[in-house]
Design brief:
24% strand; alpha+beta; 189 residues; elongated
Length: 189
């Protein structure tokens, strides 16, 4: 109700003239009637729209799959990634740091360039390992990505099997099961 939106004012709209006053009594200055009611309705509508826009902007800025702002990089070619990681030319993978919730993405570009939403500059590097894994380096860490066996009911996925700090220091979060899931919405083809 209008009263709950503005700290108790309006809880007592007077059915006679529509003026607003705390506690439901008509405002003495408005007993003769005025256009304030219409002005308040317009103002309340404007405030509600602003609040909805702020909520939408906040949820959009938290979106885990936000669109990249760094310059485009041509997608990695099949011979760079290897057949096992090719997937018809799709190169963006959703990143699930805790194994269940998407919180970003990584994208394999040509010549070992990695784009990612997980760093400020959206840049890193990647290389194919000897055993078919990919080492994705961004932030403070090297991440060893291993493909998981194909699932019948879902997109291809990987697990971060190992991490190593770029500076050689010890890993502090050892029990995190980070996963990746191929973004099949038509990226990087």
């Amino acid at each position: 109700s209008a009263g709950s939106r503005n700290g108790g004012f309006g809880a007592g709209r007077n059915s006679g003239n529509g003026s607003l006053h705390r506690g439901g009594q008509p405002s003495p200055s408005l007993r003769q009637g005025s256009s304030l009611d219409g002005q308040l309705d317009v103002e309340m509508s404007r405030v509600q729209q602003q609040q909805q826009q702020k909520k939408h902007q906040a949820s959009s800025s938290r979106s885990s799959a936000r669109q990249p702002s760094s310059p485009e990089v041509p997608p990695a070619e099949e011979h760079e990634l290897g057949e096992a990681w090719h997937f018809g030319g799709l190169r963006r993978w959703l990143w699930l740091h805790d194994g269940s919730r998407v919180n970003g993405w990584v994208e394999f570009g040509r010549d070992g360039v990695l784009r990612t939403s997980l760093t400020r500059d959206e840049r890193g590097s990647w290389k194919r390992g000897d055993d078919g894994e990919i080492v994705a380096t961004f932030g403070k860490c090297h991440h060893v990505l291993e493909l998981l066996p194909a699932a019948e009911d879902g997109p291809p996925s990987f697990v971060v099997s190992r991490r190593a700090m770029r500076d050689g220091s010890a890993i502090t979060k050892k029990n995190v099961r980070t996963l990746g899931r191929l973004d099949t919405r038509g990226n990087s083809q």
